[in-house]
Amino acid sequence: TIIFFTGDNGGVVSGDAYSSCQAPLRGGKGRQWEGGIRVPMIAVWPGHIAEGATSDTPVAFWDLPATFAEVIGSDQPLPEEGISLLPTLEGRGEQPRHETLYFGFMELDGREALCRGDWKLLHLDIRSENPRYELYNLREDPAEEHNVIDRYPGIAEELKALMRASWRPDPAWPLFGE
Known about the structure:
Blueprint: E1 3-6, H1 34-37, E2 41-44, H2 64-72, H3 86-89, E3 101-105, E4 111-116, E5 119-124, E6 132-137, H4 153-166
Antiparallel strand pairs: 1-2, 3-4, 4-5, 5-6
């Protein structure tokens, strides 16, 4: 039996958009900063996962169906964005990684996040009168305290293009007020 334990988002925000029980990470539930999207995952699978093994591989919930399909040997087609986590879980071979991870959230005037390598671009308050972008280097600034978008405009533009390509319209989730 394989067991996964994780949360669906960060901790409850207390007081303002910048604090939660995820400290030192900024933000929490409903926020696109790391405190809202970075959560631990624990997996137990006797005989397959080494006791005490850890990994810092960035994964997303959409990786779990691909992982489960590989565990049971399914030949059914899966959504293309999921990646099986078995190489990491079993400590074998090289773990394929996402080129990017995209998160969209329609509440709070709409928010998006796109992660690629050490970089993370946020698009905040999308449907407000003052939408804005923020850029962070998560390796150097995991708490997202220093918006470096003015220092790295080329990286910001690359990530904006990837963000636009990642977004899929959905009438049930009108991110841009469609």
